[in-house]
Specification:
With 238 residues, the protein is mainly alpha-helical. Helices cover 69% and strands 0% of the residues. It has 15 helices and no strands. Helix 3 packs across helix 5 and helix 7 crosses helix 9.
Length: 238
C-alpha cells in the first residue's frame, strides 16, 4: 500500500543509528516496558508526530492495519499517533465509533508503555467519558493482560481532568496487589494526577489505603506533596 510505504520511508529517512542502539538499552526491551523482540530504528517522538501530522488524512484504517502489527516500534507508535489525529479531527460519531472498533480490534499490538500512554486516554478515555459509558474501560480492567489493565487505568485520565475520580479509585484498588511493578507505577501516576486536581480526594484515599499500597505506587502518588508529608506517609508504610 503506497501510503504505508511512504510512511515507512519517511521514518527511515529520519532514523538515527545511535538512537536505535540507545532506545532498547534505556527502555529495557523485554523487561516489561516494551514488547519482547521490539525493534527500534531510532526515530524521535517529535519526528514521529511530524510524520503523523503529514499523513493522518492520507491513510485509511485498512492501511493503518498494515503498520500496527510491525515489530518496529516507531511504525506502531506512528500508526497510533495518526489514529489519535483522525479521532480528534473528526466530528462524525459514526467515524469515531469506527476508530474505537479499530482500536479494540488491534489491541493486541498495543503492548508497551509508549503505545498505551500515547493513545489510550486520547481515544478510549475520551470516547468513554464523552459518551458516559465506562463499559469498555471496565472490561479492560478485568483482563488478565497487563497492558489491557494499564489501558483501563490510563483511560481514566480523561475523567480525572474533569474532576470525576471514582472510576480511577476503583481501578487503583483493584490493582493494589498486582504482581508487576509497572501496574504500581500506573496506579501511583494516576493517583498523583488525581491529587493535582483535588488534593483532598487523594488524601482521603491515602488515609484509607496507604498502608496496603506497594511502595512504588505510594511514592508516585505522593510525589507532589511537600517533603514532610511524603516522609510521614513513607514512614507509616514501612
Amino acid at each position: 500500500m503506497k501510503s504505508v510505504d511512504d510512511i515507512k520511508q519517511a521514518l527511515e529517512i529520519l532514523s538515527i543509528s545511535e538512537k536505535a542502539e540507545f532506545f532498547p538499552k534505556f527502555f529495557k526491551t523485554g523487561k516489561g516496558e516494551y514488547g519482547e523482540g521490539d525493534v527500534f530504528i531510532g526515530v524521535t517522538v517529535p519526528d514521529q508526530r511530524s510524520v503523523a501530522k503529514e499523513f493522518y488524512n492520507k491513510i485509511s484504517l485498512e492501511e493503518l492495519s498494515e503498520l500496527l502489527p510491525s515489530k518496529i516500534h516507531e511504525h506502531r507508535l506512528t500508526a497510533l499517533l495518526i489514529l489519535v489525529h483522525q479521532f480528534e479531527k473528526t466530528k462524525d460519531e459514526i467515524k469515531q465509533k469506527e476508530i474505537i472498533n479499530f482500536y479494540l480490534k488491534h489491541i493486541k499490538h498495543i503492548n508497551n508503555w509508549d503505545l498505551v500512554d500515547t493513545s489510550c486516554y486520547k481515544i478510549l478515555g475520551r470516547y468513554c467519558f464523552e459518551n458516559q459509558d465506562s463499559k469498555i474501560l471496565e472490561k479492560l480492567s478485568d483482563s488478565k493482560n497487563m497492558w489491557e489493565m494499564r489501558m483501563a487505568i490510563v483511560g481514566t485520565m480523561h475523567h480525572i481532568k474533569r474532576g470525576q475520580f471514582e472510576l480511577t479509585k476503583n481501578f487503583a484498588l483493584k490493582n493494589l496487589k498486582h504482581p508487576h511493578n509497572l501496574m504500581h507505577k500506573a496506579n501511583g501516576w494516576l493517583l498523583r494526577e488525581m491529587g493535582k486536581m483535588n488534593e483532598k480526594e487523594l488524601l482521603d484515599f491515602l488515609n484509607l489505603y496507604y498502608k496496603e499500597m506497594p511502595r512504588t505506587c505510594l511514592r508516585y502518588a505522593i510525589e507532589k506533596f511537600d517533603e514532610k508529608l511524603r516522609q510521614d506517609y513513607l514512614k507509616g508504610r514501612i
